[in-house]
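Hey team,

Filing this mostly as a record. A colleague (T.K.) asked me to run one chain through the structure pipeline before their review meeting, and I want the input and output archived in the tracker in case anyone asks later how it was produced. No errors, nothing strange. Just documentation.

Input sequence:
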Amino acid sequence: HFHNFFDSIDILRTKYKTYGHSVGDADFKPVAKFHHDLDRGVRCIMGRPDDDIRPAFPYNRGGFEGIEGRRPIIFAREL
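Output structure:
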């Protein structure tokens, strides 16, 4: 699940290199390899399928625009 926003990939890499369960080679390793949640995010952003990992909650193939029915109210407003 998602906790924090990061201003850059460099800051994200520093977080995974230095905090908690650190990733020693975070400067060189693909971000998707840091954690399964990041892998899901990268797959979504890049439009890559997630069929091979069989997630409990697969992402919506149509992206945000493909959501049918009600959306969380936070997304109802234009910024």
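Quick notes for T.K.: The mean pLDDT is 78. The two ends are 24 Å apart (CA to CA).
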